[in-house]
C-alpha cells in the first residue's frame, strides 16, 4: 500500500471529555520522520505464502531462507532422503529443495492453491516429473504445505502429499 493521502490512516486524538477529533496522519508517515519512521509492518500470511511459493518454484534457496524464522521447524513425511523433522532455516531449506535423483527431471511445477486463515495457510504445489528412461511417462502429483507464520516469518511447515508412495519412489531413499 502506498502512502498517498487516499491511503493514509485516519488517526484520532482522544480529548479529556471522551470526544474524538480527527488529526492529520502525517505524524505517522515515516517519510517525514513521523512516529512510523523505522517501523515496518510485517508481511501478511498471504504475502508470505505467495513469496514461499515463488521461491520454491524458482528454486531460490536464498529467498526461501529469508522467509523462515530462526527456530522454524518442518515436518516432511515419507521414506525418502528428505523425510523427517528439520529444525532451523538451513535444514528446512535443504529438505524442501532436495534435488531429484539422477534420471528424474521436473518438467512442470506450479502453485495450484493458496488458502489463508489468520496466521495459518495452505500452499499446494503441483509437480510433473519424467523419468529419463521413459520420457513419455510423466508422473503428476500435488504437495501441500501447511504453513504457520508469526510476525511475517514462517515458523512451521508440515508437508502432505496425495500419493506419498509415489514421491518416496521418485525421490529415492
Outline:
This protein has 173 residues and is α+β, with helices and mostly antiparallel strands.
Please characterize this protein's 3D structure:
- The protein has 4 helices and 8 strands, in the order ββααββαββββα.
- It is an alpha+beta fold.
- Strand 1 and strand 2 form a beta hairpin.
- It starts with 10 loop residues before the first strand and ends with a helix.
Key features?
disordered N terminus; 21% helix; 8 strands; 173 residues; six-stranded mixed β-sheet; two-stranded antiparallel ribbon; 42% strand; 4 helices; alpha+beta
What is the helix fraction of residues, given as a range?
10-25%
- Main sheet attributes: strand count, strand direction, barrel closure: 6 strands, mixed
Computed Rg: 22 Å
- Helices and strands, in N-to-C order? EEHHEEHEEEEH
Instruction: Enumerate how many helices there are, as a single number.
Output: 4
Low-confidence regions: 1-28
Strand order of the largest sheet: 4-3-8-7-6-5
Structural class: alpha+beta
Number of strands: 8
Mean pLDDT: 79
Shape: globular
Distance between the amino and carboxyl termini: 46 Å
Question: Beta-strand percentage?
Answer: 35-45%
Amino acid at each position: 500500500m502506498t502512502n498517498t493521502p487516499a491511503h493514509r490512516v485516519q488517526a484520532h486524538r482522544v480529548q479529556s471529555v471522551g470526544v474524538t477529533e480527527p488529526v492529520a496522519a502525517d505524524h505517522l508517515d515515516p517519510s517525514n520522520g513521523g512516529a512510523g519512521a523505522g517501523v515496518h509492518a510485517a508481511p501478511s500470511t498471504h504475502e508470505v505464502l505467495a513469496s514461499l511459493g515463488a521461491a520454491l518454484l524458482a528454486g531460490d534457496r536464498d529467498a526461501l531462507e529469508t522467509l523462515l524464522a530462526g527456530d522454524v521447524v518442518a515436518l516432511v513425511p515419507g521414506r525418502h532422503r528428505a523425510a523427517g523433522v528439520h529444525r532451523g532455516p538451513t535444514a528446512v531449506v535443504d529438505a524442501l529443495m532436495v534435488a531429484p535423483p539422477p534420471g528424474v527431471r521436473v518438467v512442470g511445477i506450479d502453485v495450484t492453491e493458496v488458502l489463508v486463515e489468520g496466521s495459518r495457510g495452505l500452499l499446494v504445489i503441483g509437480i510433473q516429473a519424467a523419468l529419463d528412461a521413459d520420457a513419455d511417462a510423466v508422473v503428476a502429483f500435488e504437495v501441500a504445505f501447511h504453513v504457520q507464520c508469526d510476525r511475517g516469518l514462517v515458523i512451521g511447515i508440515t508437508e502432505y502429499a496425495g500419493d506419498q508412495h509415489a514421491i518416496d519412489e521418485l525421490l529415492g531413499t
